[in-house]
Amino acid sequence: MAAKELRAPGTPFSLSFSGSGFLVLYQIGVVQSLLELAPELLKSACKVYGSSAGSLIAAAVVCGISLGKEMGEDGLGVVFYANAREVRKTLLGPLSPKCSLLANIRDVLQCRLPEDSYQMASGRLHISLTRVVDGQNVMVSEFSSKEELIQRYVDGGFTGLQPVSSLEEAVITVSPFTGELDICPRDCPAIFYCFQIFNGSIQISVENLCRISYALFPPSTMVSQLGYQDTALFLCRNSKCYPKTQRAA
What we know:
Blueprint: E1 14-17, H1 24-37, H2 39-44, E2 47-51, H3 53-63, H4 76-88, H5 101-112, H6 117-121, E3 125-130, E4 137-140, H7 146-151, E5 171-174, E6 194-197, E7 200-203, H8 206-216, H9 223-237, H10 243-248
Parallel strand pairs: 1-2, 1-5, 2-3
Antiparallel strand pairs: 3-4, 6-7
């Protein structure tokens, strides 16, 4: 999204968290950076989109779920960190029978989501899903119960990598893959070329090829620090759009 789109005071904007697999650790770093440096951005986003693992981060933003420890209980971020460490110990990675990531995430959501979370999410949280009947990508933004909200994070990344509802909408895009995006890693390939896939932008680079494997077989948790730093750089580049951010940084 071009910076000029947010220059006008009160311009509505949204956030979009791409599908990411275990690179969701990068997006956790992004949210932690925004919480510390520009919390008003998270609060004022009119819509928050999420696909695949990114939908968990989107839900955390909308429903105020902690990513760290809170009152002795593990947040989503802690669960991802712990499971990433366990998966790296096995030869099969996430395919190992010992991997219980989905069950652990479900337990955290059941415990940490408030009972009225579906009301908080309806209309603001937009989750990208793949329709089983015809394989088409659909966007869900209305939820009738907490249980339905938990069920809706089923993978939609294969048909909607970077979810948005309108090309004319002002959206801050977040992805752990380098591309024509707002918050993402910055690589320096010999030839700069991006291709579009499943509504997402990915740059052709050796680093991105490595990241694709990291999405399935988790990298070091240091990747969350990269997400934090890339977000801080984004805020600095757009300081005229976010004057409060400049003081916070």
